[in-house]
Amino acid sequence: MTDAIESAKRTAAQKAVKENFDPSATHVGIGSGTTIVYVVEAIKEASTNPAIRFVPTGYQSRQNIVQAGLTPIAFDSLPDHVMLDIAFDGADEVDEELNCIKGGGACLFQEKLVAERAKKFVCVADYRKMQPRLLTNWPTIPIEVAPIAVPTVLHSLRVLGSSDPKLRTTLLEKSGPLKTDQDFYIVDAPFQTLLTSGDVAAGKGKGDGTDGKWEVNNLAQAIKELTGVLEVGIFSGVNGIEAEALRKKDGSTKAFGGQKPIAVYFGMQDGSVEVRKANE
Ligand SMILES: O=C[C@H](O)[C@H](O)[C@H](O)COP(=O)(O)O
Predict the structure, then answer these.
(1) What atom of ligand 1 comes closest to residue 105's alpha carbon?
(2) How many CA atoms does the CB half-sphere of 102 hold within 13 Å?
(3) Which of 15, 20, 90, 137 is most solvent-facing, going by the fewest CB within 10 Å?
């Protein structure tokens, strides 16, 4: 990893925390990956509330929290009525509508639980992740699958149009499949570059996969429906603020929800930070 990329991540993390982290927050979600380390660093400097608790999204995330001298609280210890004030995370690729691919580091299920529990979800990434459409530069959709279901899911993914879905192995291939924090496996499925909902509205395609082209939400749903799939590494749909508005409007039965970020901070090559924000 070059210094330029690490420096881009740090600069973006600092700006994201400065503009979104309320020092009096009580519950904060912390995602996984290499970028989130800089977010934790910035939060540690900014936080003024000794009672603040941090909800991790897996083993590495919890280690980051503890090593920074902050206090973790397990997701399943949160009282029912408690929403996270905010959650921060990284992303593997982000499109113009703020849909994200996540799971490049094998964390996605707990990340989605935490993102959906947050009033606001903010992502931080470097310039390589900023793309117009998903699957432009990042090659595959990570999917968390029950080990016994892997052959069936691989077959179903091929039927959905994925040319060569693969079970992810550890770096040392002979050690076998890589295991997630849930002791599940990860399948990486390539598809053609995804359409946004805006593309479909503009008549650029049906997005139902029949011509090989999927719209983001349709593909996420089709994969999630496969038996054996625990979660899919597409974060799409509505964001936390939109989810809250929906709940107020129609008394939605979904207690939590909103997996899209309200903003993504990209550290650029020239040292600047570009921000993509949801329409407010
Ligand atoms: O599985 C890993 C997570 O989804 C990460 O947040 C994502 O891969 C981005 O990681 P990084 O910050 O290392 O690029």
Answers:
(1) 1
(2) 32
(3) 137
Residue 270 alpha carbon to ligand 1 centre in Å: 22
Cβ(71)–Cβ(52) below 8 Å: yes
**CA quadruple 105, 89, 110, 149: dihedral, nearest 10:** -40
Global pTM reads: 0.96
> Any idea where the domains of the chain sit in the sequence?
3-131+237-277, 141-233
Number of other CB atoms surrounding residue 78 within 10 Å: 16
Q: Over 60: is that where the pLDDT of 173 sits?
A: yes
What value of ipTM does the predicted structure carry? 0.99
**Among all residues, which ones are annotated catalytic?**
111
DSSP-assigned letter for residue 194: P
Q: Which fold has domain 141-233?
A: Alpha-Beta Plaits (3.30.70)
For ligand 1, atom 10, which residue shows the shortest CA distance? 33
Task: Give residue for tokens 């912390």.
Answer: 30
Report the separation in Å between the CA atom of 83 and the middle of ligand 1, taken as the mean of its atom positions. Answer: 23
Cα–Cα distance between 40 and 271 in angstroms, integer? 20
- Let me know if domain 3-131+237-277 sits in CATH 3.40.50.1360: yes
Mean model confidence pLDDT for the chain = 95
Q: How confident is the model at residue 257 (pLDDT cuts 50, 70, 90)?
A: confident
